Model the fold of this input.
Amino acid sequence: MSGRQKLVVVGAGMASGRALEHLFAEAPGRYDVTLFGAEPRGNYNRLMLSPVLAGEKSFEDIITHSAAWYASHGVTTHIGEHVTAIDRHRKVVISRSGETPYDTLVVATGSAPFVLPVAGKDLPGVLAFRDFDDVQNMIAVASMPGSRVVVIGGGLLGLEAAAALRLRGMGVTVLHAADHLMNRQLDPVAGAMLQKAFEDRGIEVLCKAQTQAIIGHDRAEAVVLEDGRLCPADIVVMAVGIRPETRLATDAGIHVERGIVVDDQMRTSDPHILALGECVEHDGICYGLVAPLYDMAAVLAKTLADQPAAFRPLPTATQLKVTGISVFSAGDFETRDGQEDIVLRDEEDGIYKRLILRDDRIVGTVLYGETTDGPWFFDLLRDSAATSDMRGTLIFGAAFQGSAPIDPYGGRCSVAG
Ligand SMILES: Cc1cc2nc3c(=O)[nH]c(=O)nc-3n(C[C@H](O)[C@H](O)[C@H](O)COP(=O)(O)OP(=O)(O)OC[C@H]3O[C@@H](n4cnc5c(N)ncnc54)[C@H](O)[C@@H]3O)c2cc1C
Done:
């Protein structure tokens, strides 16, 4: 018996990996740590599944925490092992190995892909894009000559899957329910430019496309749209959103709304149980990008180390990880009263830059084609910096300002690697 407190972590994903790094730095040796991970492999950079799918990186390239890393920090690992229940009264988690006791429990179970409730959704060949198993399944079909994929969802994930599978030689159709691609991150102009870039790669893009059903005998063979159109497919990839993975917490009677409700210190309604990552809801918001989850990880480690800290959400930026296509978006770009736009548009070179200002401060930015100034604009946005001094040259970026830019590439872009 070490006499140390027992810390059990459920979920070997991006958020828990970062939290353990912080914990070992903040309070080394304080806990005996046991980690459960349902996936049959250690921890990897999930963001980089897209380059792996495209054949630009190998799985080995994206491993973040190997078995050796966990061992070197004295973590007992149960990799490939699902925690099926939490017994809060006896303070144990239940899994294939039996019961594992905890003094403190961390739930970091991430999200599950949202599946459209349409006929045929359970047919073999209907896949998600969430983990390395999904990637392997897609690659297996892509290796068949002449194979076709229909990707449902023209957001970040769907487009990354579509571009990657096209690179692998598949015939690709993207179905997107909204008017333009990446409608949550891009305005219609940038969305249209993006669509053209995808079409130039031989990818068919159908916007305002409502999926009615997936049909096939033994496996998916086509997607039927509400207007009757039929899109043939050997696989259908659903990339229409995520929902927090909360089942363990709900079953254990912990307060769950859309996600597991946590306070600023990442505590759940049970003081012995903390939670972080995509499975949680903080102040009514669930997160689906990694930057806020990393902030949660730092706070959670401090809470575990009995140090003061509070999670405060900050703006985040998004970038599409498709080689040869540059897209950057941050903040608010909906049209509202009192806002001003600064726009630079060069159709010939495929460049579009839009800054949205309110009270002389950047509140949103959409960049297409040339995105190197994205992090600089983003820092101005995050710092709510006044821009009147550089108004005439602002849109041309950091290099056009009189003085050195402030921390131009130190921002919170949510793309790593
Ligand atoms: C293809 C792809 C590309 C992405 N690109 C970007 C990007 O460019 N920028 C960005 O900011 N974000 C991106 N994301 C989102 C980012 O990966 C997630 O925000 C992040 O991984 C969430 O971290 P997490 O630890 O909360 O969950 P996860 O990383 O999903 O980890 C949760 C882990 O818990 C395990 N688990 C669940 N239930 C149990 C259980 N009962 N017992 C044991 N283990 C369990 C799961 O199997 C999983 O391994 C991308 C995601 C994907 C899938």
Observations:
- The radius of gyration is 23 Å.
- The CA atoms of residues 216 and 222 lie 7 Å apart.
- The domain at 317-400 is CATH 3.30.390.30 (Enolase-like; domain 1).
- The pocket of flavin-adenine dinucleotide is lined by residues 10-16, 36-39, 46-47, 49-50, 82-83, 108-110, 129-130, 157, 245, 248, 277-278, 288-291, 293, 321, 414-415 (CB under 6 Å).
